[in-house]
Amino acid sequence: MSISSKSIASRPVIALCIGLALGMIFGFLFPFLVSSRSEQVVSHEELRAFSMVEEAMRAASMNKTEDPEASYVTLPGIQKYDGPRLAASMPIETKEAWISWMKKNRNDDPLFLEQRWEWAQELVLSSELKRPEDVRAFLLTPREHFTRPQNKGLEYANTWLPIGYGATITDPDVVSMMTTTLNLYPGEKVLEIGTGSGYQSAILSYLTKDVYTIEIIKPLFVETDALYRQWEATFPSYTVINRKLGDGYYGWEEFAPFDKIIITCSIDHIPPPLIRQLTPGGIMVLPLGPPGRQYIMEVKKAVDENGTVTLSRRDVYNGLSVRFIPFRDEGGKSYSTSAPYVMPPP
Ligand code: SAH
Hints:
Blueprint: H1 2-34, H2 44-66, H3 68-71, E1 73-74, H4 83-88, H5 95-105, H6 110-125, H7 132-140, E2 161-164, E3 167-169, H8 172-182, E4 189-193, H9 199-204, E5 210-215, H10 218-231, E6 241-245, E7 258-263, H11 272-276, E8 278-288, E9 295-303, E10 309-315
Parallel strand pairs: 4-5, 4-7, 5-6, 7-8
Antiparallel strand pairs: 1-6, 2-3, 8-9, 9-10
């Protein structure tokens, strides 16, 4: 009894000791039991080896995302949504008929419809928008999606606007003039150099089902790519816009030749790879001239029976100059070699 009473008295102490001992054993073993990869079981050498592998993997994955061909190409164009057919079906005889059709068939912010209509009429009056197809494409494209929030209120102003990264969304009158000059027909293949905000290619997607566009600034490419994805369910014509991150100076060989090419950054010569990638009889439109002053040129390519290439040029603004941001290489250096144009004092 005494033993038992003693043992009863000391039971909690023994239990405590056993508990502590077990706790210590488990506490010590726990990391080894739950994870054979926890830091306690690897030596410093092994750790170094792990981190070297991790570093190599990180570098490999970075290289992968840096590779424009691998990760920065979006080719949804296979779906061939018929933007030109939609544009042709839209009534544009009166503002009222157009607005009521837009409200019924599209998901645009109704606040902008009136503004867009008036603005398109002005572009027609100034004869920058000449073909009815182009008017329709402009009426269908919500410029307000491609400008930036800090430029609220200027969506339909006749001015270029900053879109970040030193790039701009081009003035509506210049976009109109260049689009009209391209003379794009459904079924033709068009390449744009300088995706920027994505506005120009969105317009092109109502003129043909085969649009290609290249942007050199990675974050801008990513932003615009995301914008097209965000809206493509609502505006399915964006699914014909094939886009890639890269240097547009070399065109897009894989999909060449192109019936039409539009360059939306300035350069003082016509890039030879783009001349090669233009179909005989094709048209290229570009801002040609030294940094600071360019002229919008329509370049037509003709090839004779001996294969001799002839380029004919026309200044579409008859001597009026424009200013585009430079056509640059991947290091940020301008492709133009001429001295910048400096405005003479007044
Ligand atoms: N078409 C655009 C205008 C963008 S401004 C729009 O509708 O908003 C000109 C664009 O050309 C800039 O985004 C600039 O980054 C891009 N650019 C300049 N050099 C380029 C190159 N070598 N290849 C592709 N894009 C280039």
